[in-house]
């Protein structure tokens, strides 16, 4: 089988696509979360004092609901997850700080991806997410995250590869353009993002696995041949590819099963009591303050090279909800959309 090259692509656009693919392949490892840090989280048992896979996955589901609520695009969500995982894989984080870190990851991603008019304000995100932080807490944590990631927040993700592979396929195929749904593929990628294990996969491999499984369901020989050319050009070996494809297949099967409750596709609505609504409209400062998060300290080599300063703060401010929330007739629940509904 011939290698995928400029002569096999459609004109000037094809040459550009190949160049962009080569650029993504060079960059992907640079923006992957540290595998050692992810493995430490994976090996952590479920408890109240240590960050474990369940807490991380629940926070990513919250981010997905937060992105849906504010109408953010898929790229914002995927980048927010990348920022979150890179930070968690680098730092020793306590569960009580995870909500603040998640909100900051979302805001940082939104500022990179979204148009200015679509970037939610810090105060709006605080109120909707109920993260129990102040605006100054958020700004301070954003600074910590940015510094630890060396201000390299705009990353090459699996979504970049998914879009590029999809465009390359459309450039080559003689079949109907709408046969391969990008919306469905994006929804499937979100499902994978909600599981910590897929943060260990190379973005190029994860995207190719998603496309391969979808092409197999379409039973298209032509599309499969194009994907094989892309796989060969990307230097993805069979062992790695089949390992991740099996995990992706299991993940998607679970999300597609009848036992998996799927959210209503209607727009999310936040219904509150009159008193709570008045508090939300009239004050940006109804959220209890978190104690200041100290930045002093350094890496503790005796624990792990992945551990760092203890960003500890008081427990009491995280133990209860604001008084006004007790009178909500129905409070927006980010768990309402924990599972994914794939477009048909």
TrEMBL record:
InterPro entries: Cyclin (IPR039361), Cyclin-like_dom (IPR013763), Cyclin-like_sf (IPR036915), Cyclin_N (IPR006671)
The entry's keywords: Cell cycle, Cell division, Cyclin, Cytoplasm, Mitosis
Cyclin-like domain residues: 61-147
Main location: cytoplasm
Family annotation (Gene3D superfamilies): Cyclin-like
Ranges of biased composition (kind: Acidic residues): 301-313
Biological processes, Gene Ontology terms: cell division; regulation of cell cycle
Region of interest: Disordered: 301-320
A Gene Ontology term for the protein's cellular component: cytoplasm
Family membership: Belongs to the cyclin family. Cyclin G subfamily.
Protein name: Cyclin-G2
Organism: Nomascus leucogenys (Northern white-cheeked gibbon)
């Amino acid at each position: 089988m011939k290698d995928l090259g400029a002569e096999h692509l459609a004109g000037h656009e094809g040459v550009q696509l190949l160049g962009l693919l080569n650029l993504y392949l060079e960059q992907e490892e640079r923006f992957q979360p540290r595998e050692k840090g992810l493995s430490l989280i994976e090996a952590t048992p479920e408890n109240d004092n240590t960050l474990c896979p369940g807490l991380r996955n629940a926070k990513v589901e919250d981010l997905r609901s937060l992105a849906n609520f504010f109408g953010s695009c898929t790229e914002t969500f995927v980048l927010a997850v990348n920022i979150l995982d890179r930070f968690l894989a680098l730092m020793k984080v306590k569960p009580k700080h995870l909500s603040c870190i998640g909100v900051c990851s979302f805001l940082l991603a939104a500022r990179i991806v979204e148009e200015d008019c679509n970037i939610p304000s810090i105060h709006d995100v605080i109120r909707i997410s109920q993260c129990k932080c102040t605006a100054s807490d958020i700004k301070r944590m954003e600074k910590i995250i940015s510094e630890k990631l060396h201000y390299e927040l705009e990353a090459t993700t699996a979504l970049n590869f998914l879009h590029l592979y999809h465009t390359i396929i459309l450039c080559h195929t003689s079949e109907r353009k709408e046969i391969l749904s990008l919306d469905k593929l994006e929804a499937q990628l979100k499902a994978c993002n909600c599981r910590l294990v897929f943060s260990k996969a190379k973005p190029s491999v994860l995207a190719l696995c998603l496309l391969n499984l979808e092409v197999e369901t379409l039973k298209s020989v032509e599309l499969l041949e194009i994907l094989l050319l892309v796989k060969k050009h990307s230097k993805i070996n069979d062992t790695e590819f089949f390992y991740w494809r099996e995990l992706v297949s299991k993940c998607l099967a679970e999300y597609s099963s009848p036992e998996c409750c799927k959210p209503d596709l209607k727009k999310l609505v936040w219904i509150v009591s009159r008193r709570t609504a008045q508090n939300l409209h009239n004050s940006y400062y109804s959220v209890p303050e978190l104690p200041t998060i100290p930045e002093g300290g350094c890496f503790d080599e005796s624990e792990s090279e992945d551990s760092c300063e203890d960003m500890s703060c008081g427990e009491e401010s995280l133990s209860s909800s604001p008084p006004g929330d007790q009178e909500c007739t129905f409070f927006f629940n980010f768990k309402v959309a924990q599972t994914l509904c794939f477009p048909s």
